[in-house]
From TrEMBL:
It comes from the Bacteria. InterPro entries: AB_hydrolase_fold (IPR029058), DUF6351 (IPR045556). Residues 24-701 form the DUF6351 domain. This is DUF6351 family protein. Transmembrane segments: none annotated. Keywords: Signal.
Amino acid sequence: MKMLTVLLGSILCLGLAAASAQEVTVLSSRPDTVSDGDALIAVALPVGEGRSDLKVSVGDTDVTSSFTLQGRSMIGLVKGLKPGKNKLTVTVRGRSSSVVLINHDRNGPIFSGPHQQPFMCETDRFKLPDGSTLGAPQDADCNAPTKVLFVYRSSSGGAFKPLPAGTTLPPDMGQTTTLNGRTVNYIVRVETGTINRSIYQMAMLFDPTQDEAPSPTSTYKGWNGRAVFSFGGGATAGYHQGAIAGDTLVHDMLSRGFAVMSSSLNVMAFVGSDVVSAETASMVKERFIETFGPPKYVMGWGGSGGSMQQHLIANNYPGILDGIVPGASFPDLYSLVPYTVDCALMAKAFDSGQQTWTDEQKRAAAGLNTWKTCAQWVLFFTPEWMWARQADPLIRAGDSNCHSVIPRELTYDRLRNPRGARCDIYAAGRNALGFDPKTGQTYRAYDNVGVQYGLKAYHAGAISAEQFVELNENVGGFDDDGDFQVARSVAHPLALRRMFEYGRINEAENLDDLPIIDLRGNPGRGPDVHDAVKSENTRARIVGANGGAAGHVMVRAEAPVATAPGSGAPSHHASMNVFALLKMDEWLNNIVSDTRHFPSKAAKVVANKPADLATDVCFMADDTRINEASSLGNSGSCGSKLPYFEDPRMTAGAPLTNDVLKCQLRPFRAVDYPNMAPALVARLQAVFSTGVCDYSKPSVGFRPLKGTWLSYPNPGVSVPMAPL
């Protein structure tokens, strides 16, 4: 009871979903994103008023009996909301205030737009902790009955095991002490169900032999009042539900009392769309709050594709996450596409010309730590519209890169089924980008016109003039079906504009409003597509949009790092992950507890930063921790041992923000190549007859972000949701 009162105060301080006169607060979601017919409501009683003075109604229905007194607030889970608008009215001794709740179907959509079709269910493939599955789907929206299982952590070996039924606990029952200082049996309640066509999972310490039944007003001995939302990696086109969620049985989190939640459509390898991920996260979080009560905060966690989701949700749908811990990070999905496609084009050009290229010369032209990193992209992801051919063993190779769960007859074929599902990464963003009505193809934004591949390497003398010219002559592009073409690729202008205006390219306008701890391992000279410079790309965008990035802290390690504590990924620096978890917890607690007035959210974030996050942090191989400002120049104790590299676009002259999808052009100038033979200059000028990239200017199509909480009623059309 006391915990709930504290949490309510914290949520009000965070400014979530407040309504008229601050008397009525929707705790479970925004008032306009309610789903599945229920919402958790708090009513602040005026001083001197009691429960008997209160009446709450939805339309003409009295729901006062749903409310329980907690401190100076009445808390109630209001059920039975009709689809669409529901007016909830609170009356205290003749004085009324109200809030309009907009209820949506449990299957969505709320703001992500028309559902992707086809869409294949996988509830019968989703494994639960006891080895069973959710069973066959019950309908076309992939729903299945909710299942609650209990597992315990064995004191012998530390494995999670199914908890036997009954009141007698197993002899190897482990115990754990939470951040609240409570020692409890290490039993985890795992709830798995379906919502928004995804499979969600929620895990938290819960002893069924001692704890009262879950409810928004229950008291829990094991839960520390905080929650982590776990996001999974990868990046593909979607078209299926997914058979795993982000990590939820995470020892380093659960053992300290954190609740952990996720869903299959918060795994970028299944969803591909950050908007669908944001919508699903909002609905899963709503379900959690209606089940257990409001957490003090929700921290985002996850690496690679999981980092993309965190960055984009934080920037475009603020309020879902209160702080984020992206690992092996990228600023977003679509600004990564040029890098990956360039790798495939450069690999083809190296092999098709007259010049001989060493691996070191290829590396220099690509800007990476090793050419094998680019080769790894080529292996994993051939051109972006043939995305992820090798990234998942169940993705069909050959004539289609769709996941094998999607019937071949439903997928694109140039002759047999030209309107079939194109399992490319742009298709995942169809509602934001729009599509060609003649072909059904989603508008695409890959462009390499004017890009001078290997420019910095040529000027540095790392490759010869002949190599530089021939590379740019032969690099070419891809056609709509992912086949090489002689001409370079040209982006669709609508795709370019919507990428920026609708927030698919993350310009970080709102990333200074919450704390960020960016986790980054160091691959050295080993191939790793998670380039360290992507963290610097994000920071450069935050600085460019906000004038500084004091709320963005990079924590790096001398060896590769697991993207989630206890995830099982190899790491010599599990301590770094725990450090980030506890520091983010401290940071968020500082923010929630600080009742001072600040001129902005960003100012409050910076004022409450823990002292040992005053600068960036790196962990050496011996676990020595160094606090040092990041240095792209690769200087200092951290920079010299954990160097940054670039990527093909940056080596061609793109800025550190790396957010130019299609460059503006300037005329070709022979004087820019003073030591190049005239015949080679003439050949190069023929390649760039329309001009070369002018990276001093923003991307073609750049527009300021249209706003946060955009909804997509039709493909290519966005409508801002009403501000709170």
